[in-house]
Every structure is written in structure tokens, then in C-alpha cells.
User: Fold these one by one.
Assistant:
Number 1:
Amino acid sequence: MLTVPGSCWLCQMPLALSGWGVCSVCTRSLVGRIATCPQCGLPATNPVLPCGRCLKKSPPWSALVAVDDYVPPLSRLIHALKFSGQSSLARPLARLLLLAVLQARRHRGLPKIDRVVNVPLFRRRHWRRGYNQSDLICRPLARWLGCRYDASALTRVHATAIQHQLSARLRKRNLKNAFRLELPVDGLHIAIVDDVVTTGSTVAELSRLLLRSGAASVQVWCLCRTL
Ligand SMILES: [Zn+2]
Ligand SMILES: [Zn+2]
């Protein structure tokens, strides 16, 4: 995926501010396109109240913010960031997530948070790629929101198998005790940032760990929620 510097990654039109990466027209068509449940992030008719699934059995996190479903064009940009070494895409993607968070604050009263944490990659996978994509998204995001970001707040204790190749039961077992919290989070409102949330089992495990360790609340922020 190539783009001319100063033009939109999606429609190639010239940008008013070259650092934005995605123009305002493409941004408007992406952010908040689908009505989803404010807690689980799955499609719902009411974007303000928790859906029936959440009323029956709510996820451990209190709110989920996503830019869009995992479909083109957003999925193409994420794929280029993760697998084609296009790390310059991190900032434009972080900006899309920022806009989704600000929109959720405006429209559904999403509370402010104290700290952003990222989903840790196992060290070997990190080496192979040279960077952790959610880390690259967290840095500018935390700066723009004026909250703290600790890149090493969460660590992976052992290599977990690639989650999407496992059944739900194996996925759960694979994640049990897979993470460790390295910093005190007592009384803090935390946002976990991930690129793509699919089943939600990884962020659920991290949310439980943070809440067990005294966090006041946990939100999940992701570029895509697979719907
Ligand atoms: Zn555009
Ligand atoms: Zn829900």
C-alpha cells in the first residue's frame, strides 16, 4: 500500500494537514458508521444503553469504543501497519481512534480515564516485527488526551498460541495467567488499547486482571471490533 505524502491514505485527495493521514471526508464515513452496544461493541439498535446480551452476562469492561467493523478500508490499513512494516500509519490510525473516543464522550457520556495501557505482544513476535502496533497507537493517543501511558504496564508471561486458531475453550485456557501487571493501578480508570478485538477474550482477561488489582474501571478502545 503506497500513498503520496500529503494525500489521504484512502482516497488519495490532498490533505489539509499532511500528518492526519486520512482526510475529513473519509474520516466522517468511517467513525461511528454502525450503531453498536456501548458495552460489548456488537451491533445493537440502541447505541446508548447496554444490549440484551450485556444485560444477561456483561463483559468485565465497562465500555468499548471502536472506530469500525474489521472491513475495508480500515482492515487494509491495519493489515499494512501490522504486516507490511508501514509504521507511519500508526499516527493516522491513532487519530481515528481519538475521534471515536471523543465522539463516545459526547454522545454517550463515556467517562474520562487516567491511564492508557496496551496489549502486550510476546517478545519474540515483537522482535520479528520490530514494533508493537498498539504501542505506536497508544503514544500519540495518550498525548492528545492528556493522560498517562505506560508501555510496560502489562507483560505477557509466556507465549500464547495464535488466538483465532483455537476453539473458545482452548482460547480461555491459553490465556489463563498469560499476563502480568507490572504497575499499581489502585483506584485508576484505565483504557486498554488494541488494534482488533475479535472474540474479546484477550481484553477480557486483561480487564479481569486490572480489576482484580484494584482498577476503578476498565474501558476497551480498539480500531476494529469484529462484528
Ligand atoms: Zn480521503
Ligand atoms: Zn452489549
Number 2:
Amino acid sequence: MPLRKTKKTSAEIIRKAYKFQAVPTEEQKAMFAQTFGCVRYLYNRMLDDKSKAYKYFGENLNLTPAWYKHISCCRWLADVDALALANVQLNLNTAFQNFFNKRAKYPKFKKKSDHHDSYTTNVVNGNISYRTSDKYMYVTLPKIPGELMVKNHRPVKQDGKLKSVTVSREPSGKYYISFLFEYTKVKAVHDIDPDNAIGLDMSMRSFYVDSDGNEVDSPHAYLHVQDRLAREQRKLSHMKKGSSNYQKQKRKVAKLHAKATYQRNDFLHKLSRKLVDAYDIVGIEDLDMKGMSQALNFGKSISDKGWGRFTRMLVYKAEACGKRVIKIDKWFPSSKMCRECGCLSKKTKDLSVREWTCPHCGATHNRDYNAAVNIKNEAVRIYCTC
Ligand SMILES: [Zn+2]
């Protein structure tokens, strides 16, 4: 009976940015414009002063926004978010560092005509807050009047720490807000029971056959969309490029494509979730897709089934909860080996052979099920020996 193993825990910091379209009021737009202007002015002014000091005295001046706020001609800088200005200093210092380390050219002035306005502010002592409804987020930013309305088009992952916010105005006139979150990823611990394992054999006919003898098929709805997609794509290829019918058909194909992708991913997500929830160890074959599709010339059916995507989903889902996906070397003779006595048979070389009898012990095997059991046993062996 193999010993149980426990994984060690460790934590790493992951940063993730979320960008949303903002819908500012006229009053907010005015304040954004003022901040963009101050940020650009300060950047150019600091760059100019630093350049002169460098040119005439060979000195790298360390300038701060506070210094500028105190000179009479720049008092108005105090009207905007101080952290936005502090970030200007940091950005400029980075630009100079990159120049001195020969990673970048000498910093350039920012022109108003560049039409790319933005500023970044940091979260300090709860100066930035937000609340969410179904469709909108309402964000409170330093020096910006009221709450900024933001289109909430995708969920933000829970348990993150908001670090900074960047507001930008694109040449189209649209406003965007980008939130930078920090997540502490604690690697999950799970007490793995090697007896609670499953092996999957990617089958020719179905999606896979597992070591419990279940055959899992790709959903029919998905296959149906695939057929329609192929048909509509054929139609498209016969149409005159650029004609209005062609454009119409192209949109139809794109829609079907999106539907097929959605259905396939939904199926793969649910299936991988089910497996990872139920088992501690999942054994799969490490298939070299390219080599395999060339050798056997059925690459299309494999990529349609999404085996590669499926195994990636399995791996990250298992990692997130401390479980194991073990890939078996593609040379491991999972199909050839009798699961009862370990004897190898040459009969299974022919892919059309679905059932075979072991020449040594006489056991009769279903090809895929036998392979799945071998994959499971090999996965458990690998887990327990390393
Ligand atoms: Zn045998």
C-alpha cells in the first residue's frame, strides 16, 4: 500500500489588470482633462529641467512634484490627484534608467497631439473605492467629483487587492479605466489518496474511455454545430469575395464559429471540473499532437475534440486544488499491454482491432478500456515513486 503524500504550501503574487469603459459626466470629463494636462505638463517640465541639468552640469537631478507645486507658476498642479503626479516622477525616472542602461532611447516630450491621454493613481489608505451592480461599477477617485460610472462587462476575480487605477481617453473620445489587482496565490494542499485515481484513454470513436469503463462522448449539440459550420464554410468558399452575400455569409460563419467554440469549451470545462472534483490523480497520455496527426492522418478529428485544450484545463484545475494530473510518456505501451499479466500483444497495432485476447493469460480486452486501466496504474506508479 503506497504512502500518502502531502504537498507543501507556497504563495506567489499575481497581478491582473481589468479594463472597462467608463462613462464620465461632463464635470468628471473636465477634471480628467485637467489631470491629463497636469500630468503631461509635469512630465515635459521635469524632462526639460532634467535634460538641462544633465546637459550643463552632467548631473541627474532628482525632482519631485512637491517642488513644482511650491513655485508660483505651477501652483495649479495642487488641484489634481497628487498620486497621479507622483507616478509621473516614477515613470520619468524609469525612462531615464532605461536610457542610462541602454535599454531605451532618450525620453521624449509628450505632445498634446499624441491623443493618448492617461494617468495612473495608486490606492493609498482607501482613497479609491468602488461598488458594483449588475451592469455598472461606481468608482470613487481622488479629486474626481461624484462616482464614476463604469460599464461592468466582465467579472473581477474575488479576493484581489486593488493596487492602482489608470484612467485613459482614447483618440475615439472614449474613456477607459483599468484596475490593477494583486492576488496572493496560495498553492492548495490536498491529501492525495493514490487509490482515488482514474486513467483516460483518448479514443478514436468517443472523446475518451476511462478506467472505470465509462465512455464519454463529445456532446451531440456540439457535433451538430460543427456539421453546420462545415456546410456554411463551404458555401462561403463558393461566393464572390467582397459581395454583400459574401459579407452576410461571413458573419453567419463567424457566429457559428463562436457558438461551436463556446459549446466545446463549455463541455470541456464541465468535464474537467467533474474529474478534478472526483479524483485525486488523473492519468492521461502525453500525446504529441503534431506527430500523431502526421503519423495517423487523423489530426483534424483530434483537434476538433479539443484534447489539448482539455488536458490544459485538467492541469490548471487540478493545480488549483492540490490534485495531480500525471502525463504518461507517449511511448508507454498502454494499448499493447494486457492489464492482467503485463504481457505485450502485437495485435493492437492495427487500430481497427477493438477487442483482443491476451496470448499469455487468455484475458479478453476491450482495447480502450484496457488502455485506460494501464494509464491509471502507470500514473499511480509514477506518483508513488517520485
Ligand atoms: Zn495477459
Number 3:
Amino acid sequence: MRLTTERLVLRPFTAADAPAFAEYRSDPAVARYQGWEAPFTLAQAEEFVRDVAESDPAAPGWYQYAVEVGGVLVGDVGVGLHENRMQADIGYTLATAHQGRGYAAEAVRRVLAHLFEVRGLHRVSAECDARNERSARLLTRVGFRQEGHRVQSTWLKGEWTDDLLFGLLAEEWRAGRP
Ligand SMILES: CC(C)(COP(=O)(O)OP(=O)(O)OC[C@H]1O[C@@H](n2cnc3c(N)ncnc32)[C@H](O)[C@@H]1OP(=O)(O)O)[C@@H](O)C(=O)NCCC(=O)NCCS
């Protein structure tokens, strides 16, 4: 499963990605609002890439695209396909050095195009920590609608945190296409 854009290649993870993956997941700024703890060890990264390398993007559960710029791994986009195969959750991470260039939005738009236009999904959902402004900005930028704000609903890294909930329907995606 390989998707391309003007600047990016989205492709399956391979064993060779583990060191770079461990490195950006170990950045405290990248891990701040995510479910894992920094540092993220090489052994954890090797286990992760082994698992995702075997996963099937068309099967329910999480599939992870590696995002590459000029042959360098800069981040990932995850798609959690619902059991009904008609809706999915999406998540994304970029190494700090590669943020602020529009790569995340470009990668997420490409995955959304694939999910809605090729796979025929009805809806994609996303959520982020209410303090994660870059993530909320990205979701809004690519067309998601904020649908909710759950107060103190996630216990994360020793505290209760608020979550913002977002959604995007296929018809909204089609209407927003240039
Ligand atoms: C969330 C995250 C992916 C957002 O990354 P990002 O680089 O800010 O997102 P985008 O791809 O939308 O880039 C937008 C920025 O690039 C800038 N930019 C520069 N060149 C650009 C270009 N050619 N095209 C588009 N935007 C460009 C935009 O102005 C914008 O900057 P601003 O937000 O300061 O105004 C990133 O912060 C991250 O990985 N965080 C850690 C992991 C995380 O929290 N993930 C989300 C969990 S819910």
C-alpha cells in the first residue's frame, strides 16, 4: 500500500525504520499528548514496526503509513478501521524537525482521499488533547468539523485531560474538494 503526493511518499513500515521511529517518538515534545512515554526504546520500535508490517490496511484495526520525504522517515499516519469497514479513526505524528511545513496536512489529506474516494468510507473521526493546538489546527485545516469537547475524560501521564472530538463525512469531503 503506497500513496504519493507532490512532496511525500506514504508507504508500509519496514524493519529499517525502527531507529528513526524510536528517535522521533522519544522526543518529549512529540510524545507530550500521545499515549506512549518518552523515551521510546529501539526494542519497542522494532516490535511496533514488526506488528504494523504484518497488518492489512483493508482489515479492521490499526494500519500505519510511514511518511517519507526525500527517502527520510519523517512521521506516520495511522488509520483505525472500524469493524464495519465503513468508518475509521485517524492519527498522525511528525518528527519535530519536519513540523511547520505542511507535511502532516498533505499526508492526512492524501490518506483521506484514499479512504473516501477509493475505499468508499462514510466517515473518518479524530480526537486530540484539547491543549494540542497544532493537532486541532491541522484537523480543521483539512476539513474536519469539531463535534465535541469531553471534559477530563482521559487519564494521561498523571492527570485528567480534555479531548476534542472531530468528524468528517464523505459528503463533506467531496463538497470541500477543489
Ligand atoms: C500535530 C502535528 C502532526 C502537526 O504538524 P504541523 O507540521 O503543524 O501540521 P501541518 O502539516 O498542518 O503544517 C502546518 C504548518 O506548516 C506551515 N507551512 C509551511 N509551509 C507550508 C506549506 N508548503 N504548505 C502548508 N503549510 C505550510 C503552516 O503555516 C502551518 O504553520 P502554523 O500552524 O504555525 O500556522 C505535529 O505537531 C505533531 O506531530 N505533534 C506531535 C504528535 C501529536 O501530537 N500528534 C497528534 C496526536 S492527536
